[in-house]
Design a protein that fits this description.
The chain is an alpha/beta fold. The chain contains 9 helices and 8 strands. The chain binds adenosine monophosphate.
C-alpha cells in the first residue's frame, strides 16, 4: 500500500447526501465512485439474474443479501481504476460486509483509510427523501423544494426527464431508516474502534457547506 492511497467509505442514513457528496469527492480527489445502490439499480434495469434477485428487497427497502453485494464490490474493486484508491458509497451496510471488505483489502496489503459519516437528523431525512428526484439520463439529483430544476421535471444539465426512485415513497422510506438503524449504524462503532471514522454534520446544511467539512476530514489526520 502506498501512503498516499485514499480508500474512503461514505457512511450515513438514506437521504443523508452520500450520493451528492460522493460525486464531488470523486471529482475533487480523482477517485472512482462506487455506489452499490447504483450498480444494483443498473442490474435491475438490465434485467440481469442478479437484478431480478435484488429487486424485491430493494423495493421493500430491505438489504440485498451480503453475498450478492460483496460479490459486486469484489468484482468492482478488482478493476484497474480502483487500484490506487476508491470511494465507496452505500457499502458496507452490515458488519459482515465491513469484515469481508477488510479481509479483501488486507489480501492486497491495503486497508480502509477514512470513513466519513454524514450525520443528519431523522425528521430531515424523511423530508429529503420524499422530495428527491433523479435524472434518467445523467443521474443528477434534485429536490422539489430545496434544489428544484429550472423547468419542472426536466434536468438542467442534460434535459432528460426526472423521476422518483421507487423506494423513495413514504412507507418504504421508514423501513429503510429502520434497516439503517438496526443493521448499518453499528458500523459507526466498528470504524471508531479502528480510528478511521470522522463525522460531517449535514443537518440543515447546503451541499457546499457539507463538502467543505468533508474536505477537511479527508485532509486531516
Ligand atoms: P442506495 O442507493 O444506496 O440507497 O441503495 C438502494 C438499495 O439497494 C438499498 O435500499 C438496498 O436494498 C440495496 N443496497 C445498496 N447497497 C447495499 C448494500 N451494501 N447491502 C445491501 N443492500 C444494498
Amino acid at each position: 500500500m502506498t501512503d498516499t492511497q485514499r480508500n474512503v467509505i461514505l457512511l450515513g442514513a438514506p437521504g443523508a447526501g452520500k450520493g451528492t457528496q460522493a460525486a464531488r469527492i470523486a471529482v475533487g480527489y480523482a477517485l472512482p465512485h462506487i455506489s452499490t445502490g447504483e450498480m444494483l439499480r443498473a442490474a435491475v434495469a438490465e434485467g440481469t439474474e442478479m437484478g431480478l434477485a435484488a429487486q424485491r428487497s430493494m423495493e421493500a427497502g430491505e438489504l440485498v443479501p451480503d453475498e450478492v453485494v460483496i460479490g459486486v464490490v469484489r468484482d468492482r474493486l478488482a478493476l484497474p481504476d480502483a487500484e490506487k484508491g476508491f470511494l465507496l458509497d452505500g457499502f458496507p451496510r452490515t458488519i459482515e460486509q465491513a469484515e469481508r471488505l477488510d479481509a479483501m483489502l488486507a489480501g492486497a496489503g491495503r486497508a480502509v483509510t477514512r470513513v466519513i459519516l454524514i450525520d443528519v437528523p431523522e425528521d430531515e431525512l424523511v423530508e429529503r427523501l420524499a422530495g428527491r428526484r433523479l435524472c434518467k439520463g445523467c443521474g443528477k439529483g434534485y429536490h422539489v423544494l430545496f434544489d428544484p430544476p429550472q423547468n419542472d421535471g426536466v434536468c438542467d444539465v442534460c434535459g432528460d426527464e426526472l423521476y422518483q426512485r421507487s423506494d423513495d415513497n413514504e412507507a418504504t422510506v421508514h423501513n429503510r431508516l429502520d434497516v439503517y438503524r438496526a443493521q448499518t449504524e453499528p458500523l459507526v462503532g466498528y470504524y471508531e474502534a479502528r480510528r478511521v471514522l470522522k463525522t460531517a454534520h449535514g443537518g440543515g446544511k447546503m451541499p457546499d457547506e457539507v463538502f467543505a467539512q468533508v474536505e477537511q476530514l479527508l485532509e486531516g489526520d
